[in-house]
Amino acid sequence: MPPASNDTPTPEQAQKPFRVRKERTRFLGLTLDECIQAFFGGNAFVAVIVLALITVFLFREGSAFFGQNRDNLTIYRRAGLEYVDIIRQQEKDHAALSRYLSAIRLATLRHYLDHEKLPNAEAQKQLVDFDDFATRYGDAIEDLRGLASELGEAAVAIKTRHQINLDAGENRRQLLAAGKPDEAASIRIEEIDFEAELALIKDTLPVYEEIASDLGKTLAEVVANPPALPTPELRARIDRFESLNRDYLATFPSTLERLKTWDHRKPVPLTESFTAFIFGRQWLTASFWQDWYGVLPLLSGSLLVSVIALCLAIPLGVGAAIYINQLASPAEQRLIKPTIEFISAIPSVVLGFFGIAVLGEFLRAASGWSWLSWFPGFPFAERLNALTAGCLLGLIAVPTIFTLAEDAINNVPRSFKEASFALGATRLQTIIRIIVPASLSGIVSAILLGLGRVIGETMVVLLCAGNRIAIPDFSTGLGVVTQPVHTMTGIIAQELGEVARGSVHYRALFVVGLLLFFIALTINFCAQKIVRKYKISVG
Amino acid sequence: MKKLLLVAAALLATALPVSAQKLVIKGSDTLGAKLVPMLAEEYKARNPGVSFEIAAEGSTTGIAAITDGTAQIGMSSRRAKTIEISAARAKGVTMKPTIVAYDGVAVIVNQNNALNALTKSQVEKIFTGDITDWSEIGGSPGRISIYTRNTSSGTYSDFKELAMKKRDYAGSAQKLAGNEQIVAEVAKNPNGIGYVGLAYLKEPGIRVVAIDGHSPTKEAVLAKNYPYARPTFYYTNGDPAGEAAKFIQFTLGEEGQKIAEKIGFVPLK
C-alpha cells in the first residue's frame, strides 16, 4: 500500500537521527572559522615570503659584483695601471716626506710666532733658508712625476680602448637581441694586443732606472746640508727627517726589482676580488684612473658612530629603565615614560637637521672652552663629524633600549624582590645585586637591538657625519671621535642616484647593503639567543 | 551598445586633460636649484597651462633620465660621456646637447681667511691633498678642511678635469650634497675651502678667491681669462620638439639669458 501523503509525520519519519551539529554554510569548501584562520595564517606566511624575496633579490643583485670586480682588477693589471702605480707609489712616498718637512716648517713658524713673538712677515723671512731647502727637495721629484704622468696616459689610453670594445660588444649584443643582424655586423671591435701595447710602457724601464738613480743622488745631496733651526727639538726632527729619507732611498732597489718582475699575465683569482672588497682600505669611485671598492673605511665609520651612540645611550637608557621601574613614584612614571617613548616618534631627518643647525655648532663651540681642552682632538674645526652624528644616534637609540630594558626588568618575578627584602636588604642592594643581574640577559638583548637600530640609520649620518671616505685616524686615541666619517648606509643613499644599473658600482652598493643585512641579522640572532638561553625560569 | 558608450566615455575622460602640458626636467643641481625653477616660473606666467616637474639630483641623473625616456629635458653641467652616449644609442635615443649658459666654478674660503688669491698649482695641491696646512701657502696655521660635492654631481668631475689635472680628491675631503651645504660649511669653518657655482657667491660668510689674478666675473669668463669655467647643457632626445623646444627657445632668448645673468651665470653673449 503506498504511504499516505498527509501532514502528520509517520512513525518512520519521527525516527530520524537527532542532529547536534548545525549545517554550516561553506564558502569554497571552508567554513567561516576556517576562512578567518586561513586569512591570518596567510598574512603571516606572506610576511615570511616577502622577507625571503628581499634576501634573494639582494643576493642576486649583489653577488654578480665579485665577478665584475675581478674584471675591474684584471684590466687594472693588463692595461699597465698597476705598473704605473708602482712608480706613483714612489712619488707618493716622496710627497709624504715633503709633508713631514711642511710639518717641521709649521712647528718652526709656531716657535717664531709664539716664543720669539715675531710678527708674521718677520717670521716668514726667517724661514727663507728652510723654504729653499724644501723647494729643492720637492723639485727633485719632477722628472719621476713626468715619467709617471706619461706612462699613466698611455695606460689609461689602453684601458679606454678596452672599455670601448666592451661597450661595442654590448651594443652588438643588444642589436642582435633586437633582431637587427646587419647593424650588429657593422659594429667593428678591434682586438687589443696587450703584450704589444705594454711593451711600449715596459720599454721605458732603462729611462726609469736613470731617473731613479738621479733622484737618489739629488735627494742625498740636498739632505746632506739641512737648514739651521733654532731649538734642539726642531733639530731632532730634522735628524729624524734625514733618517726617514735614508729609509726612503733604501727602498729604491726593491721598487726597481718589482718593476722588472711585473707580469701582466698574472691572473686575478675570484678570492682576491672578495678580499679586495672586505679588506680594501679605499673606496674611490668615478675616478679617471682606477675605481677601488674597499668597504673598510665605510665599515669603520659605521662602527665608530655606533660605538659613540651606544656609549651615550646605554647609561641613559638602562639607567632610565631601572629608575622608572624600581625607584620612581607613579607621577614620575606617568610623566617620564611617555616622554622617552616620544623621542622614537621624532622623524630622523628632523633630528639630522637639528644636528647640523644646532648641535654641530654647539659642540664645536664647546670644544673651544678652556676647561675641556684636555680632551684629545679638542678644539676641532669641522662641525659635521662622528661626535655630532654619534650624539644624535645615541638619542635615537635611547627609546629602544629603554623600552626593552624596562620590559626585562619588569619580568623579574616579584618573589625575588620579596625574598630579598625578607632577608633584610635595602632597596638599592636589591636593585643592584638581585634585580639587575636577574634581568641582565634582557638588558643585553635590549642593547643589541639598540645597536641594530643605530647601525641601520641613514638620514642622520648622511646629514651630520661629515662624509669623509677614509679610515678614521686612530693615532690620536680618543680624538678619533672628532673626525668626519662616512657610513655604509650613507654611501648607499649618496651614490645610488649616480650609478648605471648593472654596473660594477651599482652592484658594489648592493654588496654593501648585503653586508648591512648580515650585520643586522647577526645582531638580532645574538639578541634572541641570549634572551632564550639565559632567561630565568620561574618556579 | 552600452559597452561602446562606456569605452567612449573613458577615452574622452583621459583625453580631456591634454590641454595641461607637463614638462619633466631632471638633472644637474647647478642648473636645477635656482636657474631652471626661475625660468619655469617666468615661462608659466607667459604660457598658462604648462606645468613643470623639476628634479635636481645631479647631472648623471639627468642624462640617465633622457636615456630612459622619463624626462623631456635633461640638465647637465658636464658633457655626456661616450659610455652614456653609446648606452643611449643602444636604446634608440640620440643625445643632443644645447648650451644654455656658461658657469664658472668659484673657489671659496671663509671670510676670515686672509688669503684671497691662489695660483692654479696651489688649488690643485690643496684639493688633491699635497698641501694640508694653510701655513704652507702663507696663511695662518690651521689644517685645511676640504668640502666637495658628491659623485652624482657634474661639478665634482668637472672640477677634477679643470683644476686637478684629473687626479683624485684628497682622502680627507668631505662630500656634501649641494652648493648650499658647501657654502654653509665653509662660512662656519675658518679653515674651510670649497667650490661652488657662480650663483652662490653673494652668500654671507664666504670670500671668493681669485685664480691667477682673475676673479670669476662674467667678463673674465667670456674672455676665457678665468680658468674654471664650463658650459652647461640641456640634453634632449634628438632635436627638441613641442613644448620642450619652446621652453629651450625661451631659455636661449633675451629674457631667459637676462634671468641667467641675474642669478649669476654667464650668458652666451
Walk me through what this model shows.
- The complex is a heterodimer of chains A (539) and B (269).
- Chain A has 22 helices and 2 strands.
- Chain A has 539 residues and is an all-alpha fold.
- Chain A has a two-stranded antiparallel ribbon with strand order 1-2.
- In chain A, strand 1 and strand 2 (292-293) form a beta hairpin.
- Chain B has 269 residues and is α/β, with parallel strands linked by helices.
- Chain B has 2 domains: 2-102 and 232-263, Periplasmic binding protein-like II (D-Maltodextrin-Binding Protein, domain 2, 3-Layer(aba) Sandwich), CATH 3.40.190.10; 106-222, Periplasmic binding protein-like II (D-Maltodextrin-Binding Protein, domain 2).
- In chain B, strands 1, 2, 3, 4, 6, 7, 8, 9 and 11 form a 9-stranded mixed β-sheet that branches. In chain B, strands 5-10 form a two-stranded parallel ribbon.
- In chain B, helix 7 links the parallel strand 6 and strand 7 (174-175).
- In chain B, helix 4 (59-68) runs parallel beside helix 5 (82-90).
- The longest helix of chain B is centred in the first third of the chain and has 14 residues, at 2-15.
- The termini of chain B are far apart.
- Chains A and B meet through helix 3, helix 6 and helix 15 of A and helix 4, helix 5, helix 7, strand 7 and helix 8 of B.
Structural class of chain A: mainly alpha
| Number of extended strands of chain A | 2
Q: What are the low-pLDDT stretches of chain A, counting only 5+ consecutive residues below 50?
A: none
Question: Cα-atom Rg of chain B, whole angstroms?
Answer: 22 Å
How many domain modules of chain B? 2
Quaternary: heterodimer
Q: Which spans of chain B have pLDDT < 50 for at least 5 consecutive residues?
A: none
DSSP summary, beta strand count of chain B: 11
Mean pLDDT of chain A: 88
Return the CATH architecture of the largest domain in chain B. Answer: 3-Layer(aba) Sandwich
Q: Give the topology string of chain B: H per helix, E per strand.
A: HEHHEHEHEEHEHEHEEEHEHH
Averaging pLDDT over every residue of chain B, what do you get? 87
Estimate the strand proportion of chain B: 15-25%
Protein chain pair with the most extensive contact, residues per chain: A-B, 46 and 48 residues
